[in-house]
Amino acid sequence: MSTPASSAQQFRTFLKCPLDLAAAGLRRPAVLLENAVICHRAAPVQSTHAAGIGCSRIDEARVAIASGKGGVGKSTTTANVAVALAKDPQLKIGILDADVFGPSQPRLFGLKGRPEASEAQKMIPLRNHSVQVMSMGFLLEEDAPAVWRGPMVMSAIDTLLQKVEWGALDLLLVDMPPGTGDVQISISQRMSLAGAVIVSTPQDLALIDARKGMAMFQKAGVSVLGMVENMSHYACPSCGHRDDIFGSQGAVAAAADYGIQVLGEVPLNTVIRQTSDDGMPVVLSDPSTPSAEAYMNIAARLKDMLSIDSI
Predict the structure, then answer these.
(1) InterPro entries from the entry (predicted)?
(2) Which of helix, strand or coil describes residue 44?
(3) pLDDT, tens digit, for every residue of 150-159?
(4) 246 vs 250: CA distance, rounded Å
């Protein structure tokens, strides 16, 4: 009697193209990929300008949210901007969490579980707060490290780009991994991005990498739509005293150097940390706070810049 395919074998087969769920020992709708391991090289990917990688339509806007450096609030910004946009019931918003080494969107959206498989044998994104989310974090245990070499990483990225059934979207936000290496360049070239938003703190140390990120997108032919200055300042909740912990107006100066605008300045606030850990973005849990208002203003400006119309 044959034995069920191991989890590693399931994931290896799942990554192959074309996708064959039956050969992987998977049953529709559940796709079980526990303790997943990538063990083969990525298949070559054709240009997306005609085909629209990973999406069932090619006319939705796709915007990368990037930082160049980790720990500056890029993923939190992505989540809150997406949820703010999704408050419009006519808009269909998705997030592709491309940070395979440190996926944050499952926690930020309070999502757990494995993606189901569509009739087209693609993964169906999980959904919460009216936003579709796809992340490598759904395919690995939360505390399991992705100990992968370059070809393995690119194989995972190809899976996220090619094998997700989004349906019709108005906007797909791509939560980019930090840095300016192969993964970032590949995503920029393969997804026909409408533009990129750079997130940074005002600190000079963070802005060094933010500038590198902007330069990378420019070399890849992707427009930088603007910057978000996260943790712009701290306002004491008791007395209202403002403290520029990470410096002042750093993103404003960097944006001016590159001839782009600052989309918003998000103050440092304990509520953001608490709501993020709880999987309830601050734009929903505390919409009247200055931080939530800043995210909502960023979302509104991004919507206007992209001229997003509902389907």
Answers:
(1) Mrp/NBP35_ATP-bd (IPR019591), NUBPL-like (IPR044304), P-loop_NTPase (IPR027417), YlxH/NBP35 (IPR033756)
(2) coil
(3) 677 777 788 8
(4) 9
Distance CA 76, CA 28 (A): 32
Say if residue 18 is preceded by a cis peptide, omega within 30 of 0: yes
CA distance 174 to 157: 12
Chain centre to alpha carbon of residue 97: 4
Query: What six digits make up the tokens of 158?
Result: 């190809």
Angle of CA points 144, 176, 200, to nearest 5°: 110
Per-position b or e across 161-183, b if 16+ CB within 10 A of its CB: bbbbbbeebbbbbbbbbbbbeeb
- Model pLDDT for residues 75-133, shown as the tens digit of each residue: 999 999 999 999 999 999 999 998 877 889 999 999 998 999 888 889 999 999 999 99
C-alpha closest to that of 217 among 264, 253, 252, 260: 260
Residue 54 token pair: 């990973």
Residues in the chain: 311
d(CA 179, CA 67): 8
Residue in 214, 232, 199, 206 with CA at minimum distance from that of residue 104: 199
Left if phi > 0, otherwise alpha if psi is -120 to 50, otherwise beta: which for 141? Answer: beta
Domain ranges of the chain: 52-306
In the three-class reduction of DSSP (H, G, I as helix; E, B as strand; rest coil), residue 35 is classed as coil
Q: Show contacts of 44-52: CB within 8 Å, 24+ apart.
A: 45/158, 45/161, 45/162, 45/190, 47/190, 48/190, 48/191, 48/192, 49/192, 52/192
Q: Does domain 52-306 have CATH number 3.30.240.20?
A: no
